[in-house]
Specification:
Layout: E1 3-6, E2 10-20, E3 23-34, E4 38-45, E5 48-53, E6 58-62, E7 66-69, H1 71-77, E8 85-87, E9 91-95, E10 104-109, E11 113-116, E12 124-128, E13 134-138, E14 142-144, H2 152-164, E15 176-177, E16 180-181, H3 183-192, E17 211-213, E18 223-226, E19 229-235, E20 238-243, E21 250-255, H4 265-268, E22 273-276
Antiparallel strand pairs: 1-4, 1-7, 2-3, 4-5, 5-6, 8-11, 8-14, 9-10, 11-12, 12-13, 15-16, 17-22, 18-19, 18-22, 19-20, 20-21
Helix pairs in contact: 2-3
């Protein structure tokens, strides 16, 4: 099967493609894919490729947003290899020289993957992007893609911190960045940044690490499932979520406690499952 890699800062994944005015166009946005993420190509139709992501999600992307790669290149960019670096800031400028005054080559989103070129020097790291461009970023803006051997408490705390970084971000259907994010994009990215791949949609799906637990066992960083919606539990009845509700519209904190000002009765009354990746 032919492999490909995302070479733009953000590629849109469409559920379907249709013909309009003799042109193929994407229809029904389902996801966003970040620079350096791998894809398996299953079909080619005009300017679009049908692909499956490395986390099992399928759809159509524009051919211009990706680059076909060899099996050797696939090995280099495989996130499970542990040799890649993740960008950890909301946005990171890729500079053409190791100084803040250098021209910007590109700007990538948190969660994009890059390859290190040598060791960091004087606080800077030279990196290679998926389109083979090289540039420099502050080393502090990078983390290993390999899952650290942290304690459960530490992982839960890191998941929550990544989720909190999206506070105030506008709601965007299919979004996965600080430009705009949806409910499952928020939970997916919060865990992805900690080396854990959960299902991208608001559901507990077999084959992924989230399993249902009793409500009484809930702890911070566990997941709350509502019909068509998912949130991340913070503790003390609070949860963070990305909501399209026009009363808040964005990434916000709400409560399950009717006594709190930020209580959302419409969600609290329809909570049907609690999920966790932790034993």
């Amino acid at each position: 099967m032919q492999q490909a890699i995302v070479i733009v800062p953000k590629a849109t994944l469409y559920e379907t493609i249709i013909i309009r005015n003799n042109c193929l166009i994407g229809q029904n946005i389902s996801d966003e894919l970040l620079s350096g993420w791998l894809l398996a190509i299953t079909e080619c139709r005009g300017d679009f490729l049908k692909v499956t992501t490395h986390y099992g999600y399928s759809g159509w992307v524009r051919t211009s947003d990706v680059h076909k790669i060899t099996q050797e290149e696939y090995g280099l960019w495989n996130i499970r290899s542990g040799s890649l670096l993740l960008l950890t800031q909301r946005l990171t400028d890729i500079l053409c020289a190791p100084k803040v005054q250098a021209p910007v080559i590109s700007t990538l989103f948190m969660g994009s993957t890059v390859i290190p070129c040598g060791s960091k020097k004087d606080g800077w790291q030279k990196i290679r992007l998926a389109d083979n461009t090289t540039g420099y970023v502050p080393a502090i803006a990078l983390a290993s893609s390999k899952s650290p051997a942290d304690s459960q408490t530490e992982v839960r705390s890191r998941v929550i911190n990544y989720a909190l970084s999206y506070l105030g971000t506008q709601y965007r259907w299919g979004g996965k960045t600080h430009e705009g994010i949806d409910c499952s994009g928020l939970t997916f990215m919060s865990y992805f940044m900690c080396g854990i791949l959960i299902y991208r949609d608001a559901a507990i799906k077999p084959g992924y690490p989230v399993r249902e637990i009793p409500h009484a066992q809930i702890k911070p960083a566990d997941l709350l499932f509502f019909p068509g919606h998912v949130a991340l539990y913070l503790g003390n009845s609070k949860y963070i979520h990305a909501t399209g509700n026009l009363s808040s519209f964005g990434c916000v904190v709400n409560s399950l406690n009717p006594q709190d000002m930020d209580f959302r009765a419409d969600l609290a009354e329809n909570l049907y499952a609690v999920g966790s990746v932790f034993c």
